[in-house]
Known about the structure:
Keywords: ATP-binding, Nucleotide-binding, Repeat
Number of helices: 6
Strand order of the largest sheet: 6-5-7
Low-confidence stretches: 240-248
Pfam family, one: ABC_tran_Xtn
Strand content: 5-15%
Structural class: alpha+beta
Organism: Thalassiosira oceanica (Marine diatom)
Mean pLDDT: 85
GO molecular function: ATP binding; ATP hydrolysis activity
Order of helices and strands: EHEHEEHHEEHEH
Protein name: ABC transporter domain-containing protein
Amino acid sequence: MCPQPTNHLDMEAVIWLEDYLSKWNKILLLISHSQDFLNNVTTHTIHFTHKRKLTYYDGNYDQFVKTKSEVEENQLKQYNWEQDQIKSMKEYIARFGHGTSKNAKQAQSKQKVLDKMVRGGLVAKPEAEKPMNFKFPDPGHLPPPVLAFHDVSFGYPNCEPLYTDVNFGVDLDSRVALVGPNGAGKTTLVKLMSGELQPSMGDIRPHGHLKIGTVHTALRRRPDPPSRPPRVLRHGLPRHAPGGAAQV
């Protein structure tokens, strides 16, 4: 059993683990938020629905998504057809259900068919899972760079320097991924950018109106049962930051 095995692994370790598990010749049960990892490792999928129901599918994650969509599409067609039949029978029964005429006998026959359908179980209308929506307020406009590193060096006491003479800038439209092995200093660089740490040498210049919101790694911990993700995020973000407690 591997619950979220890639959470704290760097890229090289994830690639190695993915290759190793794809060749594993014994039973493997894993939970992962990585679609690529699931696609390359798994052969079957168990879907835990919002109604706490387990549904089994053959195939990896992409195959599961395709099959699930096809099943729900067919189920919706069957549901609509059945509802049309029920509506038609009910209208007929309401119109001709009284008396002894030929139409009344047909209405009684339709009522028996309808009762049999109900006893046998009607097709349930497929329910789409509620999507998660995020709203980020407009931060306004700041001239670039909004955060600049000039000849920045940093190292922890009694340790080799992590960075030497680092120069780069971040603009409002920047989307930056920090990748590297564990221990390379990715989190330290984020702390330098947020002002939590100060450089050993050089200069870090944030724009005077820049406000930084940070979702910390500590938010990965399991919240108390009553807590919900938005509530956890409210406590994890500074109130003054875009998307902070006052705006989540």
